[in-house]
TrEMBL record:
The name this protein goes by in its record: Branched-chain amino acid ABC transporter permease
Transmembrane is among the record's keywords: yes
Pfam families (UniProt xref): BPD_transp_2
Cellular component, GO annotation: plasma membrane
Entry keyword annotation includes RNA-binding: no
UniProt source species: Capillibacterium thermochitinicola
Subcellular location: Cell membrane
Amino acid sequence: MNAQLLISAIVLGLSMSGVYFLLTVGLSLCYGLMRIISLDQFFYYALGAYMVYTITSITGSFWLGMFVAMLTALVVAFVVERLVNKRVYSKPVMFSMILTFGVNLMGVGLIKYIWGLTPKPVASPIVGRVMILGTGVPTYRIFVIALAVIVYFAVQYFLNKTILGTAIRAGIDDAEKVKALGINISRLFTITFLLSSVLSALAGVIHAPFVMVSPEMGMTITAFAFMVVIIGGLGSIKGTMVSALIVGQVVSLGALIWAPLAEMAPFLVMIIILLIKPTGLYGSKLMHR
């Protein structure tokens, strides 16, 4: 195998891992704390991509678009959480799954109404290439990898070194005990949901220059996102990062070996891991609602 192709594939896989991580860390936190499968995260992901497209087209500034996209997702997610999600926290998982899927479908419909069906291009905000072992790789991909690493450590610091984060982490292990201590668990739910939605929008923003922005882009990435969450273990940030790295590399290197492997191999890896460890790589057996 050509060494330059291999290096390019590894960097491509790492950058896709960054996108997967940002999108799935919110899904993992939502299930870990609230026991809901928040399928509307895929709407915030697509919304983030469309907002960065719009702001970049008007102002020429991708970075302003990134800020506006995350702010828009924050506002929309707050409205959805108040009107819809707050009412399903105590319901069975399937109930939340169907309801948030409905929110996702309505969001996709709204995107189609506003932006139309034609895919939109978003130019990379960082041009140029970086030489790695004699192979030139796009600088923007290096930026995406670095951003995902920074977000990972920022989320870990928030969860482990702050009082609010410690309460959320305790809620992931046992929400009832946290509630018994007098902590406002409802507020923790809201904060976690908003954090998840903003990260999903950020995933859409940084993924936009890799793909054509389209209304169905959230649907396209759904299967890979669920694989990352399940392999890593629900509620585990470390597991989500490790799993994103695995899936990103399996997809990228699989495509290099034989194109259909890019879609088949991640499912095979997931099945093997779940047969060995049914809770996922870092899933906890002690989580209770």
